[in-house]
Amino acid sequence: VNHLLGIKYLNKKDIDLIFETADHFKEVINRSIKKVPTLRDITIANIFFENSTRTKLSFELAEKRLSADVINFSASQSSVKKGETLIDTVNNILSMKVDMVVMRHPNPGAGIFLSKHVDASIINAGDGAHEHPTQALLDTYSIREKLGDVGGKNIVIVGDILHSRVALSNIFALKLQGANVKVCGPRTLLPKHIESLGVKVETDLRKALEWCDVANMLRVQNERMDISYFPSTREYTQQFGVTKKLLNSLNKQIVIMHPGPINRGVEITSDVADSNQSIILEQVENGVAIRMAVIYLLAAKIK
Ligand code: CP
């Protein structure tokens, strides 16, 4: 059985194939062909133990556009609340003849654990502060779409790197595609050995923005935060918040990204998020084609 558990387990060729497949699906969607019959005999369960807007809706739309049968499971409205375990929950869902599971879970490694205990293809839709592979794929794909090539581009990931699965998966994906990657944030929100992943650290936001072609702005993950880690929100915004004034003072036009949800006025002001430098909604749009590609390629191995 094949899975997408993290970018860590992929190589450059895997990512190139996903991008080429996503190109095809994006072209199909752009021709207003909303649905293809490709996965009519596949059933997919989306099981979410953590809240989501973009990832959940985008997976569901991708599955429906491929004509898969879809069931949705939200832990907060389920028998998990009565104490049912993860493996029991998923095995019960699988006994209804489900072929593929898309799972979001607050525990790092939850997808890896599940893949060892159940007989289905698992797609990790975010596991705690570990990985969010489809987000990194859609982010890297969006940079490729905007700048032509990711190789050799300077990308800075700004914010709460310590608690961010988006940061880790992006670092793996961007490095595989040959980008130069820096991380920028308060020392307290940077993992200690982050340089061992081949990235550089910059704690001065202006210097980071002057260096980069693209800035991927991350949300401070208050839900994963021990309060002692954190500078106050006001201090964070003063030192690491991107404003239009700051962008206008650079001698070049950089691309602004954000995985969402945005804390408007904290890591990014509205006039930046909604400006023509921002590709935030293009990222969301590309998420559907990327997830169609991932599901299609995994399903081809099931059939
Ligand atoms: N980017 C992202 O994972 O957003 P959601 O939490 O809304 O799915």
* The CATH fourth-level homologous superfamily of the largest domain: Aspartate/ornithine carbamoyltransferase
What is the mean pLDDT?
A: 95
CATH-assigned fold name of the largest domain: Rossmann fold
* Alpha-carbon Rg, integer: 19 Å
CATH class of the largest domain: Alpha Beta
Helix/strand order, N-terminal first: HEHEHEHEHEHEEHEHHEHH
Family: Belongs to the aspartate/ornithine carbamoyltransferase superfamily. ATCase family.
GO molecular function, one term: aspartate carbamoyltransferase activity
Pfam families: OTCace (PF00185), OTCace_N (PF02729)
Domain Aspartate/ornithine carbamoyltransferase carbamoyl-P binding: 3-145
Features:
Rossmann fold; binds phosphoric acid mono(formamide)ester; 40% helix; 4-stranded parallel beta sheet; 2 domains; 303 residues; aspartate carbamoyltransferase activity; Asp/Orn_carbamoylTrfase_sf; 5-stranded parallel beta sheet; alpha/beta; globular
